[in-house]
Structures are given as C-alpha cells and as structure tokens.
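sorry for the late reply, my laptop died twice this morning and i had to redo everyting from scratch. anyway the thing you sent over, i finally got around to it. pasting the sequence first so we're on the same page, its 253 residues, then the predicted structure underneath. double check i copied it right bc i was rushing
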Amino acid sequence: MGNRVTLPAGTTLGKAFEYGLDVNLGTRAAPNYQSIRRMSAYAPAFPPSTADVASYDNQGDPDEDVDGRGFNASFTVQGNRSVATGLYLPELEALLAASRSKGEAAVLDVRFYHKPAVGTPHPTDAGRADVTVEITRSNTGNTGIETFAVTITGKGGFEPIANPWTGWATNPAPKVTSVTPAGRAAGQQVTITGSGFLGATDVKFGTVSASALTVVNDSTIIAVVPAGSAGTVNVTVVTPAGTSPAVPYVRGA
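ok and here's the structure:
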C-alpha cells in the first residue's frame, strides 16, 4: 500500500549526507574555511545550559530555564594522505594537531551547515563555534581503509550564521593554504597544499609560470620555482574552474 498522505508540492525527502562541517585554516578575523572531505556519520548535538529558577510557587516541582546552547558533534573521516609529503588533507591535519595540543592550540574554529542535494539550503541551519577535538583510529584491523573517529566539543555557545553553502560544485575553484618550504630558489621544488587542484594547468609565482608542476592529488602540487629575484611573490594555482586567491611566498633568487 502506498503512502496515502499527500505532501505539499515542491518538497523532497532529506538525505543523510546533507550536512557540511568546515575547519578554519586561517584566523578568526580572516577565516579560510576548508570543508572536511570524506566525512561520514555526522551527528551534531546542541546541549543546553540551564539555570534553576524554582521557587516556592513551584510547590517542590523542578523548574529550569535554558539560558544557552552549546555545540558538540561526532563523525568519522577517512585518512587521505599525500604520496609526496605523507601529510593528510589539511583539514584532517588541523584536527589531528588540535587533538594533540593544549591551551589555545587545542581549539579550532569550525562552522556547520545544511547542504542539500537539491534545492535551496536551509537559511538558518548553520553555525560557528570554537571546539576542542578528540580523535581515535577507528579501523585497527588488518584490512580496509584508514578511518578516524572524531568528537568535537564546543567551548561556550555557538554563533548562528547565514548558511554559507553555495552548491555541489563538481569542479570547485582552487584554493592554496600553504607553500613550503620557504626560501626556495629558481630550479628548486616547493609543495603547494590546498584544495581543488585536479586539472591544474599552471602555477604562477607572481606573473611567471612555474618551470614545471606535478599535480599529486586534489590537495597537493609539486612545483619548480621559476627564474626571478629573491623576495615575496604571490603564488596562485590555475585550473579550468578558475584561479586561486593569491598566497604570499618568500622565495630565493
């Protein structure tokens, strides 16, 4: 027997994968958000903070007001590594670093949001929070992919934000998060880390193209520094989806 309850036209069932979580790889004032890729089992919670407001008028019954909400979440993430550097994707590196640190270094700035497969994202189902991180390797068997179980716990309340989701881009624009090591001169290699690198056709050091480049994966490029003077230059990555925002790099001669 089919469902006899008629739903409004233009509605659709939500999907389990329709949520995103980003890690800020920049600063609080100048954020550089990177979506957590290869994530599954995302389970957010918004635990209340309460205040006891009971009085004689309650005649012994409990009475508490909710005066704040926190943000916690658990999820799993696959351990994608660069074959050239051995590093994980930058967002996983940030999670791992926070999970092994203390003080301010143990705190990450994250944002969460609804990202539907079709249609318009929920305009207010989004927020930003400072969190601490706990990570364990969840696949410890002799076969299978490397998977991490992650728990993030909010410090204080979360900040409601406008939903930042702009769509499921099949070819996202490139974004550079780091160029290392510093001081490399003409003819020497640097590692460019970021996202959206698949199909990259050029790496620019200022206005000059890299002498050679190898796209290792979506998040890593190995480039050879072209001829030029020592000093600070802007590094950009060019793909069919566009050119990345410039990242300053101090190069040698």
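The chain has a mean pLDDT of 92.
thats about all i looked at so far, will dig more tmrw
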